[in-house]
Amino acid sequence: LKSDPTLFLRNPLKYAGAPFTALTALPVKAWTAPVLYGKTTIDQLPQIVSWKNDGGAFITLPQVLTLPPGDRNMMHSNVGMYRIQLSGNDYIQNQEIGLHYQLHRGIGVHHSQYIQSEEPFRCAIFVGGPPAHAFSAIMPLPEGLSELTFAGMLAGRRFRYFWKNGFPISADADFVITGTIRKDLKKPEGPFGDHLGYYSLRHDFPVMEVENVYHRKNAIWHFTVVGRPPQEDTSFGWLIHQLVEPLTESEFPGIREVQAVDAAGVHPLLLAIGSERYMPFRQKNPEELLTQANHLLGKGQTSLTKFLLIADGNGHPQLTTHAYPQFFQHVLERIDLTRDLHFQTKTTIDTLDYSGSGWNEGSKVIIACCGEKRRDLTTELPIDFQMPPGFSDPRFVMPGVLAVQAPVFSDEKNYTDAAVLAEGLKKFRAYFEKHLPLVLLVDNSKFTTATLNNFLWVAFTRTNPSHDIHGMDAFFESKHWCCRGALLMDARKKPHHAPELISDVNVKNKVEQMLAEW
Hints:
It is a single chain. The protein is α+β, with helices and mostly antiparallel strands. It has 3 domains: about 190 residues, Pnp Oxidase, Chain A (Roll), CATH 2.30.110; about 140 residues, 3-Layer(aba) Sandwich (UbiD C-terminal domain-like); about 100 residues, no CATH class. It is about 25% helix and about 25% strand. It is built from 15 helices and 24 strands. The strands form 5 sheets. Strands 2, 3, 4, 5, 6, 7, 8, 11 and 14 form a 9-stranded antiparallel sheet that branches. Strands 15-16-17-19-18 form a 5-stranded mixed sheet, with helices on both faces. A 5-stranded mixed sheet has the order 20-21-22-24-23. The N terminus is likely disordered.
């Protein structure tokens, strides 16, 4: 109804229950508190270590609730899913736990407010309860809208809570940890095998002093395992897309579809279909598309995007961001390498993405294209194709995308490898211009081209646009970067990247044995 209120007038019976749904959005004080059945300590909770080099045990499906200073209005609360480290590192067992939260997280706003306040920064962590509660904690809701309202509407039942010792507590949770976040103390948190397929490294994060740990009778510990996508949490992303897709055009005018690509780690790659409608009586250039792209990069979670590929959907009703090969084909057939790449440098990127120039620091690129088809993509190499020494095993990912095995990237000098390859391929520039607009430098071309997911993961989690995008014949035109021939992306592992997640052989064999017996 938010995206189109006239739906109520056109089909009143279908939406007759809307007022009752709205009522479930209001949190309500509970008369009973099953979660107060018993008390325990942190070390008695399930100590789940998902990956071999994790820094300790973590809660991976927490609901972390905070309120602004001096505020007891639950409609002003923030509930987020910020991983919690229960053990390891320098935490005092049963007294301290670690909180990891990143850019664009509501708890950070509250933390800033508490730093300016003398009031203790109280925090309540819930585990379990209705599935809608955990799901609401990961929803990208507008700032100022409490996740509790969404949880109630999704569950069809109001969020039930009560107050105890100054803490708001979910009456329906299986476990609740209450405590105070130290405003003047940080301790090392991590490493943790994360959803990009690499470890997030050890960094200083806030510490919470534990006050109480409650649990209900026969409590169930909810958890998930994250790692290189797709994993269990992929289903969360899919459901979020399903729920927010009808709101896309109202939130981002002119944009028909957006798709954060799970196989690429979500934030590294965003695909979008926009509308190029400015001055339709003349030749099309990406103009309105850039307005729409900057809107995406300036709002909420989409602002963490590293690669944004946006295409004009006018005249292409079948184009969809859900069909990755077809979308890439559409873009690569139309991209003008002297016009369509727009960089943002020395900016913020996802905290979990270590491809950049520092922690939370890197670059972005908008690739915006429209107009008629410019080239016919191919999966054939030019006649007499040769590469410079050190480069080998060229393989096609898809038409128009070639992966080349390059020397191991060992230090800063290897940034010149792309220039060496570009120079060596210059004699084939006309062929690449017409048929092969994208070349990847990779560690293993066989692996990269084996599956579409491998390509998406390697190409977009191991590249920093400002450092790793090169051109066969690159030049600047009034500070705008351009190239001719083909785009070269250096998607090799680099020394500053975080370690890749590797399954423990013993655990893998044990699981396979258990499944075989089952």
